[in-house]
């Protein structure tokens, strides 16, 4: 009886192992994959860059495509899963810095946004291109390696703090009259060492005169009696 049970368990185990092996084979050779095929990669390169493809290498998670455009050889590293261009460089010579136009093409073909400006900068001792773009209504700053074109960062652009606005003369007078009731006689806008303020002379009903200083930025006021 025990031999029959052991034999049955062995058969079931063997059956499951065979199912797993068959599934792995189907996944590798028959079932469709989300990863790009070599023909699809070639189509992407031809549509985006033109030129003549010289060589395509399958390097596991990426394709390395070498192509000639206008007599210049280029090499692209393309992610097999996403189709994104991870690196672009010239070949056949010492690697040189990409041109501004090449950087713009990289940004456009990768659908990173509408380009506003591209500038060459140095960060941490390394040359990079910083592209200001707008995508989905948001201003973004993209940093790319100046030689390989690899995207090093893609962040929301720093928002500039709102500039301080100066109160109008009418607003300053309204604040002064809240501090001292009377009739406005004179108003002057002064600027001393980045301190902008209004000096407002007010005559009161009891023949006294007050000078109200109103900060033109914050609206704070102080009163001096003459």
From TrEMBL:
<dbReference type="Pfam" id="PF03413">
    <property type="entry name" value="PepSY"/>
</dbReference>
<keyword id="KW-0472">Membrane</keyword>
<feature type="transmembrane region" description="Helical">
    <location>
        <begin position="6"/>
        <end position="26"/>
    </location>
</feature>
<keyword id="KW-0812">Transmembrane</keyword>
<protein>
    <recommendedName>
        <fullName>PepSY domain-containing protein</fullName>
    </recommendedName>
</protein>
<keyword id="KW-1133">Transmembrane helix</keyword>
<feature type="domain" description="PepSY">
    <location>
        <begin position="167"/>
        <end position="220"/>
    </location>
</feature>
<dbReference type="InterPro" id="IPR025711">
    <property type="entry name" value="PepSY"/>
</dbReference>
